[in-house]
């Protein structure tokens, strides 16, 4: 999606991937060839075209959909704009895919309009999919959830998590601080999906995978790749962990 938090690489991703669905499809196909069987998608014309091309080429993947993705600037978010996105259209769209799990986008969740988040989660559940939420503020949001949201409404919790606490609202560089944070997250009793595990490229894959190797409390990871070669190298390496 060429998010701006990738810095100067965002422009390259925009040209090479976002505006080039054919090549993006090749990256997806290489991921599939390396054994990847699930992909995180949003309702975006270019991304869906890339995935559909890969599916036509034989990539049979489960879709983990992010519901309510908007054009909000990640670096300067307007949460009111995020709440206006046509999220019900997203649910209808991804219901036509092999989509066992739908996640409410972070800009909706982190706007802390709990009534809206609850409504979206209920609609996802009614559509027959498992549901979850995404946050960019895992410390703040974790502390607010149990007092503000019906915890029975969702099953999965996607949070940024990496060894240097990059793009996280915590100072978790030492083991004791990290453990305190983890205990709070685990108290929610949800399946945890870790995202931004490479810290937007600050960490190399070997560093990231080494950190996650022995973390039995992480149920899944989400990792982005931008080139066919990256997909081959990263996922071959991941098999070693």
Give the topology.
Layout: H1 9-18, H2 21-33, E1 38-42, H3 45-56, E2 62-67, H4 79-82, H5 87-94, E3 101-104, H6 106-109, H7 114-126, E4 130-134, H8 138-148, E5 156-160, H9 175-186, E6 191-195, H10 205-212, E7 220-221, H11 228-238
Parallel strand pairs: 1-2, 2-3, 3-4, 4-5, 5-6, 6-7
Helix pairs in contact: 2-3, 2-11
Largest sheet, if any? 7 strands, parallel
Unreliable stretches, pLDDT < 50, 5 or more residues?
none
Order of helices and strands: HHEHEHHEHHEHEHEHEH
Distance between the termini: 27 Å
Helix amount = 40-55%
Structural class by helix and strand composition: alpha/beta
Strand ordering within the main sheet? 1-2-3-4-5-6-7
Please tell me what the overall shape is: globular
- Beta-strand content bin: 5-15%
The number of distinct β-strands equals: 7
Query: Mean pLDDT, as a whole number?
Result: 92
Number of helices: 11
Radius of gyration: 17 Å
Structural commentary:
The protein has 241 residues and is α/β, with parallel strands linked by helices. 44% of the residues lie in helices and 13% in strands. It has eleven helices and seven strands. A seven-stranded parallel β-sheet has the order 1-2-3-4-5-6-7. Helix 8 (138-148) links the parallel strand 4 (130-134) and strand 5 (156-160). The longest helix has 13 residues, at 21-33. The two termini are 27 Å apart.
